[in-house]
Amino acid sequence: MSKFSIEHINVLSINAYYDKKTTTQINETSSLLKYTSQHFHCHVKLTLNECIANEYWSIGLIQACDYMYLENRYGNYGSTLWEFHPLRSGRHKMVNDSDGNQYPFYSLINSKYVIERGNVTNNLIKLTYEDHFYPTIAWELPYYNGIKLTNVIRKQNFWVWLVAIKHIKQQKFNAQYDEVYILNTISWYYQLDMIIDSYQPIGKRLQSIYDKQYNEPIILDDNRTLPLSALNPPHCNAAQSLIWYPTNRNDQSKLLIPPKQIIVPWNIWLNEMKLNQNITLNKPNYCQLVKNWLNDKEIGITTNSTIQLNHHWKTSTINLTTRINRKLIRNWSNS
């Protein structure tokens, strides 16, 4: 039998969509607003030709975020913002969005398939994952005279890659030695805008919500390479921090929730996040320093995989109007 290579992978179908059966669910408690967003799904079917693998391979789905704006507004007094320092500082192009257990893949379960050394049989492989958001937000800020929540704004852009990785030394990903082959690339965008009246009784505080995703996820005609930051730590949940930004310039910003992982020393992180105003903020013991990719170069070998897309995806992929609208939304979100 022949030696396993990228040509032995046949992508049969890709389906990425917002689940119409799920909507934004709101839960108002005495102290917190909780919401669960609409779900994003990604499903892939592929087959492998019979052959022999001389190295370890991994096939799976990688997700990364290159734009995030998460604001909880408290009237004219200011806002709390969830932020990724690697993006805000411009040091990294993206932040890997995984559970952190098996970089670079989204998760250990269902979104990754491992090919061991030896005989490879001809079988059907299904890769899948689901993503949604479930934050909690304080109705009021006691450390700032009890000001009350008025708006929740969320805008995020994600990239998804179906990749095959040839591991040179071991199954754990190594950016220096491993070969990354890009089979397909997907992009999707999520937006949410809520108006809140925190003076109303519990259960009646949500006044309006805008959560319609007008553009379906897009499978790119031409694959995009991956920046190193999309493949390595930190991941989104570890990189994010929550900071209070007052409108009054005489007041100081306040770090509410520190990150779990940083890519620069703590004093540099504070300086780049504008949190060095005459206040000593000690680094939490749990906060770890991870690699800063000084040259966040893009890697990956693009391939011409065998794909049979259904009519829905053929239409959404080549629809010029959808692409133009997508660009307009991204330009608007960055304004």
Give an account of the 3D structure.
The structure is a single chain. With 335 residues, the protein is mainly beta. It is globular and about 75 Å long. It has one domain (6-333). The chain is built from five helices and 25 strands. The strands form seven sheets. Strands 6, 7, 8, 9, 15, 16, 17, 18, 20, 21 and 25 form an eleven-stranded mixed sheet that branches. The longest helix has 14 residues, at 320-333.
Number of helices, counting only DSSP H or I runs of 4 residues or more: 5
Radius of gyration: 22 Å
Percent of residues in beta strands? 35-45%
Low-confidence stretches: 306-335
Question: Major sheet, described briefly?
Answer: 11 strands, mixed
Q: Please tell me what the overall shape is.
A: globular
Assign a percent range to the helix content: 10-25%
Average pLDDT confidence is 91
Helix and strand pattern: EEEEEEEHEEEEEEEEEEEEHEEEHEEEHH
Tally of domains: 1
Count of β-strands: 25
Structural class determined from secondary elements: mainly beta
How far the N terminus sits from the C terminus, by CA atoms, comes to: 56 Å
Organism: Schistosoma mekongi (Parasitic worm)
Protein name: Protein FAM78A
InterPro entries: FAM78 (IPR029638)
Would you kindly provide a brief summary of this structure?
Strands 6, 7, 8, 9, 15, 16, 17, 18, 20, 21 and 25 form an eleven-stranded mixed sheet that branches. This protein has a three-stranded antiparallel sheet with strand order 1-4-11, with no helix packed on it.
What are the salient characteristics of this protein?
335 residues; Protein FAM78A; FAM78; disordered C terminus; 5 helices; 11% helix
